Amino acid sequence: MTYDLVVIGAGPAGMSAAIKAAKAGAHVAIIDENPVSGGKLLGQLYHEPDSGWWVGRNIAREMIAKASSLGVAIFRKMEIWGIFPKWNIMLNNGERLTTEHVLIATGAAEKAIPVEGWTKPGVMAIGAAQTLTNFHRVKPGKKVVIIGVDPLSLSVAQELKMAGVEVAGIYPPPATEVSSDKSNPKQIIQGLSAMAHLAPNALLKAAGKAANHPTIKNIAAKCYPSFGVKVWGIPLHLRKTITAIEGEKQVEQVRITAIDGNGNQKNGRTKTMGVDCVCISGGLYPLSELAEAAGCDFVYIEELGGHVPLHSPELETTKDGIYVAGNITGIEGAKVAMAQGELAGTAISSRLGLLQKGSDAISEAQVKVQDARANAVITFQQHIESGREKLAQCWHTNVQTSSGKG
Amino acid sequence: MRITEHPVLGKLEKKPVTFSFNGKKYEAQAGESIAAALLANDIRILRYTEKHGTPRGIYCGIGHCYECRVMVNGERNFRACITPVKQDMQILSQHGEIL
Amino acid sequence: MDKRTEICRCEEVKLGEILNAINNGAKTSKALKLATRAGMGICQGRTCQPVLEQIISYYTNQNIQETPGLSTNHPVRPLSLEELAGNRKDL
Ligand SMILES: Cc1cc2nc3c(=O)[nH]c(=O)nc-3n(C[C@H](O)[C@H](O)[C@H](O)COP(=O)(O)OP(=O)(O)OC[C@H]3O[C@@H](n4cnc5c(N)ncnc54)[C@H](O)[C@@H]3O)c2cc1C
Ligand code: FES
Ligand code: FES
Q: Mean pLDDT throughout A334-339?
């Protein structure tokens, strides 16, 4: 089959792009490996200061209805395993879709934090707990601890509690070669205060506020009580860490030990606590394997979450006709992903000759992305703006050198 | 393990189906993933690894990590976290070889 | 981290094995893959790759951007011939 646009990933970015382009008259296909479209939206649930509860699954449902009514071909339960020139999109059932325009909107994956015993059943990434609780409505455990103190883990902690799960504590990961800043109480406090100011979630907000208080900021890391501070009834620990997860076949208990203000373990003494589930929150990184296999150029920008495909202000990569939108371009919330999807959908429609005032529409869509970013209530990366600037700079340099060559 | 009442999402609508896991019958909610259905029945161990035979369960929950592979109706390697459970499905935990 | 901590879940590779490989000269994720199979499992490194990059960066004193970590090739997902031939039943 041939389409004007093939979108890979039916999260908020991909869906918004598909809707935008289909509205303009494009023949669009959208593919996702999940049985239900919506991507990470499906698990999201939080209270927004102005508009009330953000129930991701409902927003996903509306987008699916809209896309279907516009004639978008929705492929579910199909993995894309490759993109070949120019452009053939390979599905794992042997099918192949042909198109001039591809949007890769594959979102993000979670960064792991290896902890002794983390392969035991009952240990899961924080996103799994979120999806189980809010989408499937199954408790990830009866008594849960969370490793990793960040905006996502605090949000999910509250969501778990709301669903009636006992959250026995949130702990920083043990300091190791891979987790240094995530294990350092000072840096955790600094990060929270930078990211939590507009937080939609009471727990996150409380933590952010506390962390922002000048006295607390200065002394918190040092004097943080060893028994933790209860936020929303959930013990948030900064002076203890989990060094091992134990159990014969599956999780039965965690081993806890005290740490100092820099995250170093104080003495060898440990105690244990019985739990049946451990959630690990190590942050998110852009899932960009398809762009990479397709030969797009990459840059590593820490502020955006890792390796991202180099892309233009219109979201086109260094490969002609391949666009990116959403978390693959850097880790941000759902509303930014939607605005980016609309931008990509607009840019592609314009290229297809479907828009009368294409460049005006593109500029408008770019402004909307900036607005969404400025008004974001949830931030995952501390210096996202500067990350975006770095990327723009890289693109600029790239254009100059390649036009110099030609 | 089911969340039947939720302060924001409301009451859970019951749509029961039955399936089997390693030969035993269980109840699930129509449309939910195999992994969710098993966890709702307090089952966490989905497979045993190739090399050392250690047990594994859900890890990423969204199809990225392939830790949750199970055998469904005689075929191997379905990711339990993104494969919906259906009436009369026969599910087995996997041991050994990958493909 | 304890040397027995598993780093690559798919291939069941422990930190100790990775450090041995680094000491024997594997300084990129590609070399590490060849030496230990870490990152070569069925998830194709989606779970362990960022950790491997951090470990290499830490033990070799290179910034991550300098370690040519990315080495994804087609296919980016595991494929079975059954599936490709369209023989897999839709459940
Ligand atoms: C665990 C977790 C929790 C989050 N919680 C929040 C939150 O509470 N609030 C918030 O605003 N943001 C949250 N985010 C950020 C979230 O990523 C964005 O909100 C938004 O969902 C990103 O949209 P996207 O369209 O870029 O990607 P996604 O929503 O991730 O969608 C990408 C889709 O692509 C599919 N896909 C990927 N590769 C392939 C392939 N090869 N073949 C077929 N399909 C593929 C995936 O299965 C997925 O459905 C969270 C992210 C994660 C990972
Ligand atoms: S739990 Fe990771 S793929 Fe299913
Ligand atoms: S965890 Fe290493 S390849 Fe999957």
A: 96
Q: HEC states along C17-81?
A: HHHHHHHCCCCCHHHHHHHHCCCCCCCCCCCCHHHHHHHHHHHHCCCHHHCCCCCCCCCCCCCCH
- Residues near A214 by beta carbon (within 8 Å), at least 6 away in sequence: none
Q: Ligand 2: residues whose CB is within 6 Å?
A: B 58-61, 63-68, 79, 81
Best A80, A119, A123, A307 member to test C by mutation, with max C CBs in 10 Å, is: A307
CATH number at residue B57: 3.10.20.440
Mutate to test the interface with B, among A137, A158, A246 (most CBs of B within 10 A): A137
Lowest-confidence region among A386-400, B41-55, C61-75: C61-75
Looking at the domain assignment, is residue B75 inside a domain? yes
Burial class of C6 by CB neighbour count within 10 A (0 to 12, 13 to 18, 19+): buried
User: What's the N-to-C CA distance of chain B in angstroms?
Assistant: 33
Nearest beta carbon to residue B56 from set A109, A121, A162: A121
Average confidence score pLDDT of chain A? 89
Query: Does the C-beta of C69 come closer than 6 Å to ligand 3?
Result: no
C-alpha distances (whole Å) from B43 to each of A3, A122, A137, B1, B56 are 43, 10, 15, 10, 11
**How far, in Å, is the centroid of ligand 3 from the Cα of A34?**
21
Residue B99 is assigned to a structural domain of this protein: no
Burial code (b: 16+ CB inside 10 Å, e: under 16) for A180-202 equals eebbbbbbbbbbbbebbeebbbe
ipTM of the complex: 0.94
d(CA A306, CA C53): 11
Q: Using the beta-carbon criterion (under 8 Å), do B44 and A250 form an inter-chain contact?
A: yes
Q: Which of B28, B35, B34 minimizes the C-alpha distance to B14?
A: B28
Domains annotated for chain A, with CATH where assigned, are 5-109+284-401 (3.50.50.60), 112-280 (3.50.50.60)
| Domain assignment of residue B34, yes or no | yes
What's the token pair of residue A340?
Answer: 């980016």
Q: What 3-state DSSP class applies to B26?
A: strand
The predicted pLDDT at position A207 comes to 62
Residue B85 resides in a domain: yes
Domain interval for residue B74: 5-93
Nearest to A111 by CA among C64, B99, C74, C60: C64
Q: Which residues of C touch A113 (CB under 8 A)?
A: 51
Task: Please judge whether A138 and B62 are an interchain contact, meaning their C-beta atoms are less than 8 angstroms apart.
Answer: no
Q: Residue A81: its chain C contacts at CB < 8 A?
A: 74-77, 79
Predicted local distance difference test score (pLDDT) of residue A382: 83
- Phi and psi at A277, nearest 5°, equal -150, 140
Q: Which atom of ligand 1 is nearest to the CA of A79?
A: 42
Please tell me the distance from the alpha carbon of residue A392 to that of residue A362, in angstroms, as a whole number: 17
Q: Report the domain count for chain B.
A: 1
Read off φ and ψ for residue A96, nearest 5 degrees: -135, 135
Q: Do A128 and B61 touch (CB under 8 A)?
A: yes
Rg (CA), chain A: 22
Check B99 against C80: CB less than 8 A apart: yes
Q: pLDDT tens digits, residue range A205-241?
A: 666 666 665 555 544 555 566 666 677 788 888 889 9
Under 8 Å CB-to-CB from A61, ≥6 apart: which residues?
A: A38
